[in-house]
Amino acid sequence: MTGYGLELDAVEHARLRAQAAGMRGSNEDLWPLAGVVPGADVVDLGCGPAAVMLELLPLVGPDGTLTGVDADPAMVERGQADVAAAGAANVVVQQGLAQESGLPPGSFDTAIVRLVLIHNGGREQEIVDHAASLVRPGGRVMLYDLDSTMIRVAPPSAPVSELRERYQAYQRARGNDPTVGVRLPEFIESAGLTLEAFRGTCSTRLRTAGERGPSWAARRAMVDAGLATLEEVERWTHEFEQLDNLPRQPWMIGCVFVAIGRR
Length: 263
What we know:
alpha/beta; 8-stranded mixed β-sheet; 38% helix
């Protein structure tokens, strides 16, 4: 990914690992359709710290392979460390672009593009086209993304809601489309793939005390972009601490979308 903007600190790393676990669990029935089966060769474009690949390791088994590509050196380094710690000999993480990975065409059974398109406005189709080129005939491309305008906090909480709105403004200013999740079939079909599945899932859960989310991870990037101030970041810090101490946390509501195309 390029221009990701989310800082990979310990809190963000833990969030990404939990998010990956949730993705695997909520899409159990789709993995076989996406070609993630024992012995499969899978590539994850924009893999971040390899969180999804480590979750999928049991699905491909010892005879499968998992290859991850990410543009951020910090993500690659963290991913390589986590892979080494897991002793996953059939998982590789390397640096590269989601739209130009440098991997040989037609080398994989499945290409996954997860939460990448929403950070790469203007390059969405290029990324999906590249993913399609990496899979063998009959292979699958799995897109997973969201529509961040559907996120709700109930009842509204000052730091969560304000940061979410500011983060959406930041994304739009960078040319990114916060509604990209609903466009996934368009990208699949424009890449010359046959659309085999398209699903949206709404999740509701109580916020966990200490949780911050992607908008918090982007706070310094928003300051650098002139869309937030250091004084606001300090205020948000105190407001989050106050929210964490409340006995009743707000509900977090959001929708994610998955599309699978066959070459």
